[in-house]
Specification:
The chain has 354 residues and is an all-alpha fold. Helix 1 packs across helix 9 and helix 5 packs antiparallel against helix 6. The longest helix is centred in the last third of the chain and has 26 residues.
Length: 354
């Protein structure tokens, strides 16, 4: 439970921002949340040492980790205590986004912030997060050793971890993913100060279209279930309202193409959706982009093999020139028109996060 004082102050000093609907339901209305604004504070603090210390020190070394912390703490020294606490919670969230969240704050360079994070959580009686951090911290004894010494307790540096430390670290990390909410705590703290809240909410209202689209894509990513075969994909996407389905299919195409080119889109299970993608692009006013997708589909024997293994078998026999033709199609994912179409589709259907 959060501190009662923080919760009471929140009720007295600021009107609540409306919550979003379930993004997967028909007619969903989404609100761009304050947590997204605060998360960007964490990003800014995380990259600041990379900018200031570039080329001067190895940020993954013990000395580099301490130097990075000095940069961040100097940055936070110029703001109020509440703003500092919000910044540290945003940084804590940023540092615990990995597959093993609490590895970042125990055995990696970010562990130099452990005492700073504990101080914030103690100050605001965030017992859940504090207990989890302390459980993770207790795995490594003595804690006062260097970052490199703690890392050596966990891994040999060649991909092999010590189960004595790795297994409990994974266990507490799983609990962190399920129960911890640093950004939620940061919002509560912001609400306790009307001036701080007003600044953050103004940033929320002024958020760019790019930021809102990233948030929308992340929300919609939860609307699908795992699938592999074409009939499974059809079942999954048949359950989703058309506006969400359009945006998810476009998002999948962009993500695959930006990661490994349009060649990757057709090679991976995402290529099962190529006919639906082409139809969506046509319907949203991008016929040239749709034609490019159909050009890729025409690289296969007709009818287009929606089965992933069949596509991979064909691609295994392609010439270098054929591969280059697939790679060339990536230009249609890079020109920005699909992003514009996604934004327009979200706005016209009411899905755009306000």
């Amino acid at each position: 439970m959060r501190a009662a004082g923080v919760a009471l102050a929140a009720l007295l000093t600021s009107a609540p921002v409306a919550a979003s609907d379930d993004p997967c339901k028909p007619g969903a209305r989404l609100i761009y949340p304050l947590t997204e604004v605060i998360a960007q504070r964490g990003v800014a603090l995380d990259v600041r040492p990379m900018i200031d210390l570039s080329g001067t020190v190895n940020l993954f070394s013990d000395d580099g980790a301490r130097a990075a912390r000095d940069v961040v703490m100097t940055e936070l020294a110029s703001v109020s205590q509440i703003e500092k606490d919000i910044g540290l919670l945003a940084l804590l969230d940023r540092k615990t986004l990995s597959t093993i969240p609490l590895a970042g704050v125990t055995v990696l360079a970010s562990s130099v912030y452990m005492d700073d994070f504990r101080d914030v959580l103690t100050r605001h009686v965030a017992q859940t997060e504090l207990d989890l951090l302390d459980r993770a911290r207790a795995i490594f004894r003595p804690w006062g050793t260097s970052v490199s010494a703690r890392y050596a307790q966990w891994s040999d540096g060649k991909g092999k971890t010590d189960p004595v430390t790795d297994l409990p670290l994974r266990e507490v990390s799983a609990a962190w993913r399920e129960r911890a909410d640093p950004l939620g705590l940061a919002v509560e703290i912001a609400r306790s100060d009307p001036k701080v809240f007003a600044v953050l909410d103004a940033e929320r209202l002024a958020a760019s279209d790019d930021a809102r689209l990233r948030y929308l894509e992340a929300e919609l990513s939860h609307c699908t279930r795992p699938w592999w075969k074409p009939h499974e994909a059809d079942a999954v996407f048949g359950e989703i309202p058309e506006p969400q389905r359009d945006l998810i299919i476009l998002s999948i195409f962009i993500a695959e193409s930006m990661n490994g080119s349009t060649h990757q889109f057709f090679y991976n299970s995402a290529g099962t959706l190529a006919p639906q993608l082409a139809e969506t692009l046509d319907r949203l006013g991008l016929p040239e982009h749709a034609a490019a997708i159909r050009q890729g589909m025409a690289m296969y024997p007709a009818p287009y093999p929606r089965d992933t293994e069949q596509r991979r078998a064909v691609m295994g026999g392609l010439t270098e020139a054929d591969d280059e033709e697939f790679y060339a199609l990536t230009a249609w994912a890079e020109d920005g028109a699909i992003y514009d179409a996604m934004i327009a589709r979200a706005k016209e259907t009411g899905l755009w996060p306000e």
